[in-house]
Design a protein that fits this description.
13% of the residues lie in helices and 41% in strands. With 170 residues, it is mainly beta. It has one domain (26-165): Pnp Oxidase, Chain A (Roll). The strands form 3 sheets. A 7-stranded antiparallel sheet has the order 3-2-6-9-10-5-4. It has a 3-stranded antiparallel sheet with strand order 1-11-12, with no helix packed on it. A hairpin with a 5-residue loop joins strand 7 (108-109) and strand 8 (115-116). The longest helix is centred in the middle third of the chain and has 9 residues, at 86-94. It binds flavin mononucleotide. Flavin mononucleotide binds next to strand 3, strand 5 and helix 3.
Length: 170
């Protein structure tokens, strides 16, 4: 989607490199497919949007294969990964999308019925409120329906293409 105000800045490699210096948390957005299968996608752009009303959201690439399947159920859960869960950060970003991303994982269910990965730091349940196309991504806005902290362990931080943790003390 183009807009008259869009810039002509074109160095995609430099764009990616510089944004790689902005640390993010990592969540796996989970949901359930039409046949009841668990679905999940690794997302770094998840954020709180509004407290009143409670809204949270993320940006999803328009080529995503899994998001339309989750969106059809009109609800999702953001699973906040622990720093020790690097394998799942990559697994939910790369591997097959037909449910095999959950192979070997016994997922619980959140309040809205979405999969909860064992050992995650927190979960945020949302009902799908709206989506808005912005360039090659869609902004997904969820109405927050349930929030839980499940562990006091260190959350994952993603920085310069690698997983780690925040090393924040005090
Ligand atoms: C740390 C990390 C953060 C990511 N953040 C996002 C994001 O915010 N939005 C997005 O669309 N893809 C993001 N991705 C890429 C998706 O996980 C990847 O494109 C995935 O293959 C999408 O799966 P799907 O095609 O099954 O939907 C991220 C990947 C990683 C490893």
């Amino acid at each position: 989607m183009t807009n008259a105000a869009d810039s002509q800045f074109a160095d995609k490699a430099e764009y990616r490199r510089v944004f790689g210096h902005l640390p993010t948390g990592v969540v796996v957005i989970t949901g359930v497919g039409a046949a009841g299968e668990p679905l999940g996608i690794t997302i770094g752009s998840f954020s709180s949007i509004s407290l009143d009303p409670p809204l949270a959201g993320f940006f999803i690439g328009r080529q995503s294969r899994t998001w339309p399947l989750i969106a059809a159920g009109a609800k999702f859960c953001a699973n906040v990964l622990a720093s020790s869960q690097a394998e799942w950060c990559w697994r939910f970003a790369k591997d097959s999308v037909d449910g095999a991303r959950f192979d070997g994982i016994t997922a619980a269910r959140s309040a809205n019925g979405s999969p909860v990965l064992p050992g995650v730091v927190a979960t945020i349940d949302c009902s799908l409120r709206e989506t808005r196309t912005l360039g090659d991504h869609d902004l997904v806005v969820g109405a927050v329906t349930d929030v839980r902290v499940l562990s006091d362990g260190a959350a994952m931080v993603f920085f310069k293409g690698k997983t780690g943790d925040a090393h924040i003390t005090g």
